[in-house]
């Protein structure tokens, strides 16, 4: 493009671009190829960034709100609908495709890059962030939806394809778009989330988004834009980059300050693993563990929970015990107090929790997970049960299921008929299984659903419950194969206990009328009813 045309007040880039591009292509046969390649690379980069923004919001929404199937479906459906709305809304601006593309990418980079931080801060300071989630999803979807029509227009104006080749151009555009989405979908869980976390990962993605727009502006769209337009665009892009760079550098401080507002006691340890957010708080002698914001134990009263879960499962003389979950090491601690228990296999999904148990929580669990009698296996409980190794001859004498509440589909599968059927295959013929089953008072449907589900796997079940002050009324299920329900008993060789004795355990099997048995259908992999039970109970 000549200086006169570029600087002239009457310049119309939309009209001049085809001629200039055609001249450039004639003078340099490789120009068309480079133009096409760079624009398609921009399509892939923008698509990758768009999917990362949405995954970041979904990940954070799961941590903050539980991420139910309905909420997730609404977010995904809303994002897809916003894609279509964005494609329609940008139609009047296609006559100015170049400058509009830069504007769209600038907005997308800044909105997407700031979205996770805005969602987290809003949740911490206001207590609700659904509005931010909905608005963020709609804006990001609309801006991503506007990209393809703009890029298609730019490709056509460059005369890289005639009318007969429009299908080929569209196919290339779609291929680049879907490839970029694949790259973004893999980069989020494998690279950005584990290395940078949600807030910094979104900010870094915004920087990539803005950088891609700047590269396209400098190397391609300068042939289409006036000098004033190009200078203004680069200035705005630079300002947006500085904002996101500042967020990237200060994200740790912002996140630490904001996170502390969510917890009453001072945070002494924090880690975001690929599976969950892990927080340990401490005030005086009270240490608490939270997973995704849900309290797992308090040292003020965890012995009430732990003793009630572990000792009834041991019967008389259990020697081999399988723990599913229990990564905090508290169940293993109690088992190691039993003189006859010589084999403990613990299957825990998250290695970050195990490492925390071996370090920060070591004084609480007595170093149980470093004891040679305890073999820790990092694996999904259901996956491991399909191919259990090692498995004592005849099966385990006891199985302790100490898993988080099934408030999402991932955990719901571990409270299914299929899961308990797999447990029955590794349990000795006369062995016992104890399951933490939730609160019969706060979530009664979930509690009795769990009992019905265990029974559906061929177990006879005795439910029982105790009072744990930080949890309230908390329930368990003791089960054995066959038709005769077991009677909860404390082993004769049990060490002195702080809470549990036989009188307490006998009383624990009695349920008042308001929380008594309810007829429920079992929860299965295809119908995870217990997840809805948990959500309704909490609400």
UniProtKB/TrEMBL annotation:
Keyword Protease: no
Residue spans of biased composition, Low complexity class: 1-12
Catalysed conversion reaction: S-adenosyl 3-(methylsulfanyl)propylamine + putrescine = S-methyl-5'-thioadenosine + spermidine + H(+)
GO CC annotation: plasma membrane
Pathway given in the UniProt record: Amine and polyamine biosynthesis; spermidine biosynthesis; spermidine from putrescine: step 1/1
UniProt-listed GO biological process terms: spermidine biosynthetic process
Family: Belongs to the spermidine/spermine synthase family.
Protein name in the entry: Polyamine aminopropyltransferase
Organism expressing this protein natively: Mycolicibacterium goodii
Organism lineage string: Bacteria, Bacillati, Actinomycetota, Actinomycetes, Mycobacteriales
